[in-house]
Amino acid sequence: MAELVLGIETSCDDTAAAIVDPEGNVLSSVTASQALLHAKFGGVFPEVAARAHINKIIPAVEEALSVAKVSPEDIRAIGVTRGPGLIGSLLVGLNTATSLGLGWGKPVIGINHLRGHLRSADLESKKVKYPAVILLVSGGHTFLAYMEDAVNISLLGTTRDDSVGEAYDKAARMLGLGYPGGPVVDKAAMAGKPSIPFPRPLLNSGLEFSFSGLKSAVARYLSATESPVVEDVSASFVEAVMEILIKKCQRAITGRPCASLVVVGGVAASPQLRAEASRLCEEVGVELCLPPLRWSTDNAAMIALATWDYLNLGVSPQPVPQVRLPISEF
Amino acid sequence: MSLTLGISTSSSQFRIVLGEKGKVLFNSGDNPSLNAPDGPVELIKDISPLLTNGLESIGAGIKEIKKIIVDIGPGGTSSVRTGVAFANGLSYSLAIPVCPVSSMELIGIECWEKFGLPVVIAVKSVRGNAYVGLYNGRMAGLKYGLPEQFIHEMVAPVGEFVVAGAFRNKVIELFPGREIRDSGIQSVNARLLVEREGLFEKRATFYPNLPVPLTEQMIPAFD
User: Model's pTM, two decimal places?
Assistant: First the structure.
């Protein structure tokens, strides 16, 4: 009996395929990163990303099947990211998945990338206690959501401009630290002092975020300072980001019934964010759920787990691209 | 049935052609409801409805497709990429060969057969650049760049020629005072993917050597 899902993820710059069972056990997860290709641009270059997906997607699927030691007959359905994401990247994943489904005679379901991220903390073992507040922080997204359970999700607040990951990338580029920005800025911050009073936009109001003002403040500081200390600028930037993220989480948790705080997305790999989130959860008495680092960034295992939710609910969105797709939709 | 599937990707609308032994059995271009310029947006983004419609109309199943011939461009970057991704996934899942052919060659074949003359094919790109190909019974040249910088050198070995492709007026402009024959052909005739399949069969390939879209970075390999 076919009891596995093949997940495919190509929303941005990672080409990924994974095999996951109904319990969330990951039989294989393959991610072909394009970070090196985009490093010279200081961010993701959409045309380059789409071209690279073409080369990498079938090898990723082949490897996922091979590592899991399964054949297409073992697959019940294919789940593929339908959005949000870059149109060129989405099209490659969706059309590859569609033709695989036609050839193998398997259903293909379009999956909301954001719902994949929200489910990533439950990969390999069910950790999330509901109701939960979720903070998704990545290069493409920054928002807080409320999950009554695994599938009933409402948006609490999102960013009005840049994502936090974008702010990290831009700060890293201004500081000459390379790409991707998160790990290098966090590392530099650990060796510096948070001595520069960068702004904390929207800190004291609501659950929305804004990072463009912080990014601009870093730019202004660097252009006005003769010999800026990279480590101190990094530490000050990271301190401002953390204060914003944690304050918003605190506000979201205390305003509604909440058993756990879940932090997902690429920026969830930040040691500073992990430490601050842990401190907050101890303080307010909720459980902290952090996915292992390998599930924090874009991956296909989270898409496959979300596919099981869709199958269990009987929802089956068409595998056509949706560049913008809110978290409330499947 | 032992079907050949042709996928034309380089025009504004995908074309799916199904045929057997060089005879076309289904051409999505013949179905106005599938190919209307104001048709459903999904058809631009998703080839599968065209294919399933085609298979149903000739009473065939997906596993009766034994070979794919795919147009790898140049053309609309998203549509070419989408078509090639679809072709590769189908080739892999059905374990059947896929044969890549450029849109320049397909246009060249049609003109060569019609006029019996060398063909200069021009496809517009960005910032004044173009893909320009020379076909004289086979692809004899392919360059990317500003056509005024290389077109005269490219056509020097041939005498009379005919122009084709959506940017052919640019070629005519570059030869003032010379009478250039205009083929009037500006895009791929998808039927040729099946009707001339014998020309492309030697390029049959399987995973892991699947086709990629033809881009300017690849041109030296074709020149």
Answer: 0.91
